[in-house]
Amino acid sequence: MMALFLLGFLALIVSIIYLVFHLISKVKNKERKLSKKMFYPLLIGGLVLMIVGIGFSDDTAAGQLQTEQDKNEELTKQIGLLKEENSKLNSKIEELTFNNKETKSQIEELNSKKKEIESELENNKQKLESKTNELNELENNDKKINKEKEELNKKIENLNTEINDQSDIINQLKEDKTSLQAKIEDLQNIEVASNSSSSSSRSESNTSSSSNNNAYYKNCTAARNAGAAPLYTGDPGYGSHLDRDGDGVACE
């Protein structure tokens, strides 16, 4: 229907242009006449087509207006629904904001606990390092002890070998002892046999010892001539007249 309106509008424009052209031409040629067969049909036809197009366009506009009103009502309903959803979202936002505050407080508490745990971990790490150092020292001591143990084992082995050697020597000495005891028994038998012959010599020695016990030396020269110097306290022939310095030794 818009096409009819445009077609009528175009015919009206053409008729107006023709009229203007005719007026300009009539100024130059006053005898020139307007062509009624061309001007009036264009003018009247253009007006009719425009009126018809406007009528149909009004109907179309009314339909479009009704359609737009229907759309507006739908949009109004949608806006109401969106407002309800917006209110729900606002309530949810408030809840989330409250939960966010609680979450922040919980996060702060967790951060404080995290710091405490980190400090404890640092302390435990230092303790672990000290324990590790102690363990390394103990391992080094164990190594030293193992080395000393090995050395002691070697010494013990050497001592065992020496003990075995000494046990062999002891066994040899025992054998020598038994042989010596046999020889001693033989010598004792010989001594018993010689006791009778030595009785006379014992009596002579007793008389000589009694004479020595009764010995008296006038001076140190006599003691030296007798071969008794020096004389000690308790010896036969000792006297204070021979020990001038009184130290218990005479005729030094």
Average of pLDDT:
77
With strands numbered from the N-terminus, the spatial order across the biggest sheet is 1-2
Query: Unreliable runs, pLDDT <50, ≥5 residues?
Result: 195-212
N→C terminal distance: 177 Å
The percent range for helix content is over 70%
How many strand segments?
Answer: 2
Shape: rod-shaped
Largest sheet: 2 strands, antiparallel
Strand content: under 5%
Overall structural class, as computed from helix and strand content, comes to mainly alpha
Summarize the structure.
With 252 residues, this protein is mainly α. It has helices spanning 2-28, 36-213, 220-225; strands at residues 231-232, 249-250.
Description:
With 252 residues, the protein is an all-alpha fold. It has a domain at 2-120. The chain is built from three helices and two strands. The chain has helices at residues 2-28, 36-213, 220-225; strands spanning 231-232, 249-250. It has a two-stranded antiparallel ribbon. It is rod-shaped and about 220 Å long. The model is unreliable at 195-212 (pLDDT under 50).
Supply database-style keywords:
rod-shaped; two-stranded antiparallel ribbon; 2 strands; mainly alpha; 2% strand
How do the strands and helices of this protein lay out in sequence?
Layout: H1 2-28, H2 36-213, H3 220-225, E1 231-232, E2 249-250
Antiparallel strand pairs: 1-2
